[in-house]
């Protein structure tokens, strides 16, 4: 209701059986409450012949329901329908105060904020009750107005968040689409992957590529941070990845140290106001000769699982990608044996497995030494992560590559 109006309006609604009583009360309200205009309506006229509710533009509605329960419930329902419904789910419903004068309707049966007064108490309570309501009306109007604005703002924010969530889900699908396809077995060497982002998108990236008839390129990186910034940085790192180059028309395979060095230079060249960096490990695996060359850029060391021996880290020195453009990444070479497995992983595993607050991923990986099939290794790791306390709220992106070395072709033929 407009605050500029000189009078406050009250609607007195009644069933046909209560017309006389309601009209008397309308006169009494007008007489005892100066400045208040009261109108009297029969509940049957609150709906058009077509059944459409009439809208009542008033401060308070007093309903005299009578002693017939069906008539009382019908009158109350017609009154509630006459209150302007909210324009949207965020609007404040039922701004009009409704008071039912009846012995058949209790306050418990009404919407919260509506009131019921027994017929016998109306003489003593109704007018003082209406005065109290009208005294608070300006403050309530202001509060409703502010709440309506706040609800609209919340609704707008909710819509914005839903749009952003849809965009993130689409970004996650795109990111997964750009993950490398599974690499077929090459000379008995198999590769299995485990990839579980913290949120929709991940700062972890990996790349496995067959370079020629004998060799695989293996790469895994972990961009600093989480979410969209880390995902974008991870994509930039992958985009800068070079494993081959053409010199005088001849294709030359790059070593893992050179691959990391070139990625580091490109990332460092694009540093602006903020410094973004990533850890990474690169390798070239000769599946026929069973040798692997590795280089690392501040990344957790690969783990070698060899049946009958204690698991061991394969340590490689090298600075983070994107910090020092002239960083040199040294390489180490390792001879592999049948049934060996190499695990390349992101540092999220150090938080996924803990024992008394200390990382225990090495112990968990070591328990898988005797398993040959890399897919089984990945499934077992996934099951162990899921069994951890708090696994539903993982602390970081999780990515793991399991490289399994099978028997040589000659051995398989002899068998």
Describe this entry's structure for a reader:
By secondary structure, the protein is α+β, with helices and mostly antiparallel strands. The protein folds into 2 domains: 8-152, 3-Layer(aba) Sandwich (Rossmann fold); 178-414, 4-Layer Sandwich (Phosphatase 2c, domain 1). 34% of the residues lie in helices and 25% in strands. The protein has 9 helices and 19 strands. The strands form 5 sheets. It has a 5-stranded parallel beta sheet with strand order 2-1-3-4-5, sandwiched between helices. A 5-stranded antiparallel beta sheet has the order 6-19-16-13-14. It is elongated, with a radius of gyration of 38 Å. The model is unreliable at 1-6 and 86-93 (pLDDT under 50).
Mean pLDDT: 83
CATH class of the largest domain: Alpha Beta
**Rounded to an integer, what's the Rg over CA atoms?**
38 Å
Distance between the termini: 93 Å
Topology:
Elements: E1 8-14, H1 19-32, E2 36-42, E3 60-64, H2 69-82, E4 97-101, E5 115-117, H3 122-177, E6 189-196, E7 204-210, E8 215-223, H4 227-239, E9 244-247, E10 250-253, H5 256-269, E11 278-286, E12 291-297, E13 302-305, E14 312-314, E15 332-335, E16 341-345, H6 348-352, E17 354-355, E18 358-359, H7 361-366, H8 374-386, E19 398-405, H9 409-414
Parallel strand pairs: 1-2, 1-3, 3-4, 4-5
Antiparallel strand pairs: 6-19, 7-8, 8-11, 9-10, 11-12, 12-15, 13-14, 13-16, 16-19, 17-18
């Amino acid at each position: 209701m407009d605050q500029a109006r000189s009078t406050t309006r009250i609607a007195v609604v009644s069933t046909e059986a209560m017309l006389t009583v309601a009209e008397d009360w309308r006169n009494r309200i007008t007489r005892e409450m100066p400045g208040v205009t009261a109108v009297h309506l029969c509940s049957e006229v609150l709906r058009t012949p077509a059944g459409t509710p009439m809208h009542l533009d008033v401060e308070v509605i007093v309903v005299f329901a009578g002693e017939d329960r069906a008539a009382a419930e019908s009158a109350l329902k017609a009154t509630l329908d006459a209150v302007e419904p909210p324009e949207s789910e965020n609007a404040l419903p039922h701004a009009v105060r409704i008071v039912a004068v009846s012995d058949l309707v209790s306050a418990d049966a009404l919407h919260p904020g509506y009131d019921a007064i027994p017929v016998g108490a109306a003489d003593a309570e109704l007018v003082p009750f209406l005065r109290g309501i009208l005294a608070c009306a300006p403050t309530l109007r202001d509060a409703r107005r502010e709440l309506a604005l706040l609800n609209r703002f919340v609704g707008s924010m909710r819509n914005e968040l839903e749009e952003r969530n849809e965009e993130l889900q689409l970004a996650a699908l795109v990111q997964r689409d750009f993950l490398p396809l599974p690499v077929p077995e090459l000379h008995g060497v198999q590769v299995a992957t485990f990839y579980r982002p913290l949120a929709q998108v991940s700062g972890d990236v990996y790349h496995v590529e067959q370079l020629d008839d004998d060799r695989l390129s293996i790469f895994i990186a972990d961009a600093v941070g989480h979410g969209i910034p880390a995902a974008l940085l991870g994509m930039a790192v992958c985009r800068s990845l070079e494993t081959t180059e053409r010199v005088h028309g001849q294709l030359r395979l790059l070593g893992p140290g050179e691959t990391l060095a070139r990625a580091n230079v490109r990332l460092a060249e694009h540093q602006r106001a903020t410094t973004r960096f990533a850890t990474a490990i690169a390798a070239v695996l000769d599946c026929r000769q069973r040798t692997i060359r590795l280089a690392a850029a501040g990344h957790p060391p690969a783990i070698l699982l060899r049946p009958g021996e204690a698991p061991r880290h394969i340590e490689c020195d090298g600075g983070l990608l994107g910090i020092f453009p002239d960083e040199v990444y040294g390489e180490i070479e390792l001879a592999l044996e049948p049934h060996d497995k190499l695990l390349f992983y992101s540092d999220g595993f150090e938080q996924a497995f803990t024992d008394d607050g200390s990382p225990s991923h090495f112990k968990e990986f070591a328990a898988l030494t005797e398993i040959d099939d890399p897919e089984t290794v990945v499934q077992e790791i996934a099951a162990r992560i899921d069994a951890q306390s708090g696994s539903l709220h993982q602390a970081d992106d999780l990515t793991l590559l399991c490289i399994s070395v099978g028997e040589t072709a000659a051995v398989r033929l002899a068998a």
